[in-house]
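Here is one chain, start to finish.
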Amino acid sequence: MTTVQLFCLPYSGASAMVYSRWRRKLPEWLSVQPVELPGRGARLGEPLQTDMQALARQLVKELIPRINGPYALFGHSLGALLAFEMAHALREFGAPEPVSLFASGTAAPSQRDDYAKGFADPKTDDELKTELRELNGTPQEVLDNDELMALTLPILRADFRLCGIYEYRQRPRLSCPVHVLGGKEDKATQEQLIAWQLESSANFSLEMLPGKHFFIREQEAKVLRILRSSLEVDLRKYQRLTDVGATLVAKAVCQAL
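Its structure:
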């Protein structure tokens, strides 16, 4: 089967390496490639970014040389919004669109006013820790570790601002399928999740899974099954369209000769 590069964008406060374990759990034709953001992980020495469009363009410039065939974008929470902006930036730079865009755990770009209310407000360290506890995605031993918190809280603060000051821009729809995952007990409502279908002229799907914001951990096996099955279908469609396009080009060349 044709290899598909799966570029994965992290959620607020996290390194993209949270996706590294997926490499062992997905088939070989799905090449998991975590996309690290400035200011964390291997890029810890780089300045944190608070402008979503600027960050998307920066990452796309780095990503384009790595694309060597069909690819997909996956993001959870902040990562979903960033993946969406990257899909538009890729098109602006003349790159092919992804085979699929997976948006997990956040309201659609056009539904941010209520969903992201208060994200841009400055928060104290204690308020950020409370937010982490409520999201239930950070182990208590990490929350109690002052050294780890000293590294994590500035990243989280910048990421909250990144989401909080994000401004939706209406543009021509993407042409790739959009697959949305939501947690049944998460903050994002079904209405806010369904609105993702307005961002693409292609197929749309919504899967609601048990759990709160970090359902991608609690329901990891289901998430990976959805990823794999959706990409299998989208890849077949992509290959048919590619074959048709190549045939049309060949006919045009023959007629011109």
